[in-house]
Amino acid sequence: MTARLFEPLRLDNLTLENRIIVAPMCQYSAHAGQAGDWHLMHLGQMAMSGAGLLTLEATAISPEARISPTDLGLYSDETERALGRVLDAVRGDAPVPIAIQINHAGRKASSRAPWDGGAQIDPEAPEGWRTEAPSALAHGEGEAAPHALDSEGLKRIRDGFVATARRALRLGIDGFELHGAHGYLLHQFLSPLSNQRTDQYGGTLANRMRFPLECFEAVREAVPAGKPVWMRVSATDWVDAGWTLEETVELAHALKRRGAAAIHVSTGGLSTRQQIPLSAGYQVPFAERIKAETGLTTIAVGLITEAAHAESILAQGQADAVSLARALLYNPRWPWHAAAELGAQVRAPRQYWRSQPRQFKDLFIDTRHGQR
């Protein structure tokens, strides 16, 4: 029997060869939002990994939507040309479907890269700017509070999500993920810890979900039917009185009604007070609950590092796909080794066909070898 991990997965009209997804991984290596040679090297590795889908890192809809001054963006002709150059090169030898994660960082914007400490950059500093959010509540103690978005700001951001999606369509992107997790803007609207508005976008669950759903609807309308659109969510804030799994289930139902092809389930990132009990697959139960209650195609993520573990998650029906980040950075050939371990096949670039081990003669799909 074929390992569940290596069965095809259909997201609307997009069919993935297997159920391993390269998760979005910020590289903090863009210049003025523009992808460069590092992105070419990084995405080239990930595209040759054998995964069924490659997701670009969180891609900002505007300069002020970036997490850091070195974040990737897709909001101008210059950023579109730069990313197009990288994608053209990657696709030349690695025909993997590519998705984009569209993001606005909200109050977590204007931050240093992780290796520079990750702290907020003062709005008056040369590389800093004033952030914006649902409410004028700072993310961390001692940080500058963001501007609370007014109706014009909300429209600007909705339009920004759509404009980035349209640029991505011109670049031939296959799938569209809205970033509603990890404490960024859409998550900030969902959580009562960061959203204390008194208008139609705050208070009740329906009101707090309103703006993320409006952004989703706008992107879904802009993207042609058949091309999948979905959202990444944090299923809990890991803080008392914060966003909960039960609320996430309601959001998943709402997304499904609006045509979401899937839901990508993570947790945390909104509050510095979070207490996360880390263990292998610690976020999988959240994905399992959402899948069971909604029937929505569900992507699980979080300390999934072993092939047997990934296979068991899918075999037990806890999720429909697994998403890997750090494990793939550490071992960019993780899907190859997983296929070998599970007796499956994986696609590899022809330049690497001769690396197929003798004990795994059918590991790579469609290999051909000459006699010389």
Please give a structural write-up.
32% of the residues lie in helices and 14% in strands. It is α/β, with parallel strands linked by helices. The strands form three sheets. The chain has an eight-stranded parallel barrel, surrounded by six helices. Helix 3 (151-170) packs parallel to helix 5 (205-222), helix 5 packs parallel to helix 6 (245-257) and helix 6 (245-257) packs across helix 7 (284-294).
Give the tags.
12 strands, two-stranded antiparallel ribbon, 372 residues
Q: Number of DSSP helices?
A: 10
Indicate the low-confidence ranges by residue numbers.
none
Strand percentage, roughly? 5-15%
Strand line-up in the sheet with most strands: 3-4-5-8-9-10-11-12
Oligomeric grouping of the chains: single chain
Distance between the termini: 35 Å
Which series of helices and strands comes N to C? EEEHEHEEEHEHHEHEHEHEHH
What is the overall silhouette?
globular
Described by strand count, sense and barrel closure, the largest sheet is: 8 strands, parallel, barrel
Supply the helix-strand structural class: alpha/beta
Helix share bin: 25-40%
Give the overall pLDDT as a whole number: 97
How big is the Rg? 20 Å
The count of DSSP E runs of length 2 or more, i.e. the number of strands, is 12
Question: What topology emerges from the helices and strands here?
Answer:
Layout: E1 9-11, E2 14-16, E3 20-22, H1 37-47, E4 53-60, H2 77-93, E5 98-103, E6 132-133, E7 147-148, H3 151-170, E8 175-180, H4 185-190, H5 205-222, E9 229-234, H6 245-257, E10 263-266, H7 284-294, E11 298-301, H8 307-315, E12 321-324, H9 326-330, H10 334-342
Parallel strand pairs: 3-4, 3-12, 4-5, 5-8, 6-7, 8-9, 9-10, 10-11, 11-12
Antiparallel strand pairs: 1-2
Helix pairs in contact: 1-2, 3-5, 5-6, 6-7
